[in-house]
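F.,

This is the one I mentioned.
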């Protein structure tokens, strides 16, 4: 008989209760809202304390050649704060790495580890770095850095200087990856779908680039909402949900 020493790591985790604390880490302002905005809104409404961490400054997210990157970065910080408020209220942290230039370095892993040890979340959410044909390098690098940071945060011999400074190791109960290559966990966002849309629309600088010019007029806004409803319905169908966000769930 063949013994699989890693069988437990591949079993589907049990159903997930509302966490007390959650940390969502996205590469850019608006990534968290696209990937997990409805889930965060649901949990925040149920009393969960949420933190959103944004890895880049968002300074390349425009098609407007007249817009200064520094001005865009400042605007996107304000938009992220507004989006966090629209979801029900979340702390927002910025790593301020240059947009489009994120690499999965030891320095970024260390920073993720520090944020996990500082905020001590029950659940961490981020991009799925294993997703096939994931085109954006920032999404891949952020996903890898968060996965590696979760592993580092749980053991005292990783970045011991943090432990010496009083940041004790912390092991989240779940790591949830959005835009998952092989989803196995679904969260019902039907009751909070409008909050997800409202949070996304706070990112008005991205209206043309990612939302079909939803800020231009009511027609374009309605078209964007229809597209998002279709996407949520497609994600929820395997779980019998009319609107959902789908994740790959791992137990660190």
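My design for it:
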């Amino acid at each position: 008989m063949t013994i699989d020493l890693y069988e437990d790591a591949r079993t589907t985790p049990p159903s997930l209760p509302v966490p007390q604390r959650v940390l969502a880490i996205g590469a850019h302002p608006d990534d968290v809202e696209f990937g997990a905005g409805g889930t965060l809104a649901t949990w925040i409404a149920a009393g969960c304390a949420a933190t959103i961490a944004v890895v880049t400054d968002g300074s390349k997210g425009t098609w407007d050649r007249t817009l200064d990157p520094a001005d865009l970065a400042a605007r996107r910080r304000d938009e992220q704060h507004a989006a966090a408020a629209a979801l029900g209220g979340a702390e927002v942290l910025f790593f301020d790495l240059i947009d489009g230039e994120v690499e999965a370095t030891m320095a970024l892993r260390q920073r993720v580890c520090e944020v996990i040890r500082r905020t001590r979340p029950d659940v961490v959410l981020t991009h799925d770095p294993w997703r096939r044909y994931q085109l954006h390098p920032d999404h891949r690098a952020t996903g890898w850095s968060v996965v590696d940071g979760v592993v580092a945060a749980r053991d005292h011999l990783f970045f011991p200087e943090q432990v010496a400074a009083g940041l004790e190791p912390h092991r989240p109960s779940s790591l949830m990856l959005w835009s998952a290559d092989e989803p196995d966990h679904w969260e019902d966002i039907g009751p909070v779908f409008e909050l997800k849309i409202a949070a996304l629309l706070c990112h008005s600088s991205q209206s043309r680039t990612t939302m079909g010019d939803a800020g231009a007029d009511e027609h374009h806004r309605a078209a964007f909402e229809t597209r998002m409803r279709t996407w949520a319905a497609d994600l929820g169908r395997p779980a019998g949900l009319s609107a959902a966000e789908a994740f790959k769930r791992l137990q660190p």
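The first strand starts at residue 21 and ends at 26.

Talk soon.
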